Amino acid sequence: MGIPPGEPMVPYSSIADLLARQADRFEDKPFMVFYSDEGQRKEHTYREFHEEACRTAMVLLSAGIQPGDRVATMSFNHSDVVVQYFAAWMIGAAVVPVNAGEDDRRITFVLRDSGARLALVRDIYMDRILALRPAIPSLRQIIQVGGKVTAGFPFLAAELLRQPARLKAPRPPSLDDEALVVYTSGTTGSPKGVVLDQYNLLVDAMAIAEWHQVSDSETMMCVLPLHHVNGIVVTLMTPLYGGSTVVLNQRFHPDRFFERMSAERVAIASVVPTILQILLHAKLDMEAYKFVNFRHLICGAGPLTCELATKFEQTFKMPIVHGYGLSETTCYSSFLPIGLEPAEHRRWISKHGFPSIGVPLPINEMAIHDAEGNELDEGQKGEIVIRGHNVMRRYFQNPEVNDETFRYGWFRSGDEGFFRFDDQGRKFFFITGRLKELIIRGGVNISPFEIDEVLMHMPGVEAAISVGFDNDWYGEEVGAMVKTKPGVEMGAQQVIAHCRRHLPFDKSPKVVLFGDDIPVTSTGKYQRNLCRDLFGAWKSVQFSEHSGD
């Protein structure tokens, strides 16, 4: 790329530097508008947000948190979670976002493996964390957020009242300080901690803001969870970098999505394919809404089909800017260009068998490699590899996986793909499948081995595997192939009920097939991909936790 690795591409010394400068520049302009599930609207100006982050940072310092420490957060989407992220970054600490939807075993692993010293916990999760705490020796302090529900633990709202609006940090944070340790499922049962530093977040936000031409007169909207890099980088860091406003929703609600886009004059929103599918089936009255500032939707983080993309764009007359990235590359690494002529945009979305994930952002390079690290030519299928300024520092405490992941000097994504040149000589990339066996449901990585373990512990089961199958609603859903022991009779609902006792709904099989011929390789490894088509009858089914499916 012609840019020495040690030369930063951003004009800021840290995330705190960016926030302080934007607060001075925009003062009373809204930075964040938060909508609760009850419809309450709360607005933070740039100055108010900066001062609240300073106070929260002082709370962390008074609790003994130092640069390099890890601070965990456990909450649903809320404006105060955003404040907590920036507070940690202002003192050079790293955030470990905990997904409350995970099971207790996974949450315990994340908190213990990361070495988090302090956890900021939403009131509704306090009892759960306290039950897990004996197995997490590094977790020295817990601060309650929201309501004060447990005696003997500090309450954030009360602590904030004691702190000044000006930060007195022991040292200025730097670009090299760790900012996030995000845990993502791998091909083994235990998740891997992706270590991202402040520079990773800043440079990816810069690239996204520049690519999408985010301006200080526009508003973006976030409906994705803040424990994922997509929600954090695309719809928090990027609007901050561009000096714009972000509308943060506690959760995605199909009946409120367009309503809030219209009311808040949103220009860009970031979604996953599952949201597109849900909106298509919501039967909404679009006549009530006006999208005077709307430009496009950013979509990634899961399998998008040509059919879904085309149908959504035709139905709602809203362009989709498809992109690609991973937690390991901070967030996005490529996007479709936003200035394409409509006919060319449609061609890249629908005419190559897969919707194109676009061309690489200027901050990174992408290529297609074979198994030996040799670069492949146009149209040849191989592994998508990435290198550049937004690539993670490493997996936390996982040297063997690091060595394998960065073999040949590139980050190996585990995704299979190819590229095509356009008439300007740009490489447009495509994903055709995954070399890894991850199941990606609604943009969330699920390790099949974790589900296998639960299946194999069920009495009467001789062999079983989980299978990710194509699903119109979530990109992929979870199925299971089960072989019972001789003489054992078992029904699908028995297997599903067993899994639900040990796994959250999203990871539990929705369809169970029985047989004696689960395919294996010559070395005895199960061949999950050979089973996918057996679940074709359930491709269009939306499985709901409360529907009885």
Description:
It contains 15 helices and 25 strands. The protein is an alpha/beta fold and 549 residues long. The chain has a nine-stranded mixed beta sheet. A four-stranded parallel beta sheet has the order 4-3-5-6, with helices on both faces.
Briefly summarize what is shown.
With 549 residues, the chain is α/β, with parallel strands linked by helices.
Topology:
Layout: H1 15-26, E1 30-35, E2 41-45, H2 46-62, E3 70-74, H3 79-90, E4 94-98, H4 104-114, E5 118-122, H5 126-132, E6 141-145, H6 156-160, E7 178-184, E8 192-197, H7 198-211, E9 219-222, H8 229-242, E10 245-249, H9 254-263, E11 268-271, H10 273-280, E12 296-299, H11 306-316, E13 320-325, E14 332-335, H12 342-350, E15 359-360, E16 364-369, E17 382-388, E18 394-395, H13 399-405, E19 411-421, E20 427-434, E21 439-441, E22 444-446, H14 448-456, E23 461-471, E24 475-484, H15 492-502, E25 511-514
Helix pairs in contact: 1-2, 2-3, 7-8, 10-11
Which structural class matches the secondary elements?
Answer: alpha/beta
Cα distance spanning the termini: 51 Å
Q: Which strand order do you get reading across the main beta sheet?
A: 2-1-10-9-11-12-13-14-15
Proper CATH architecture of the largest domain: 3-Layer(aba) Sandwich
Give the strand tally: 25
Computed Rg: 23 Å
Largest β-sheet summary: 9 strands, mixed
**What is the residue-mean pLDDT, rounded to a whole number?**
93
Please name the fourth-level CATH homologous superfamily of the largest domain: ANL, N-terminal domain
CATH fold category name of the largest domain: Rossmann fold
Q: Tell me, what's the shape? A: globular
By DSSP (H or I, 4+ residues per run), the number of helices equals: 15
Low-confidence stretches: none
Helical content (DSSP H or I, runs of 4+): 25-40%
Strand content: 25-35%
Supply the CATH class of the largest domain. Alpha Beta
Q: How many individual domains? A: 2
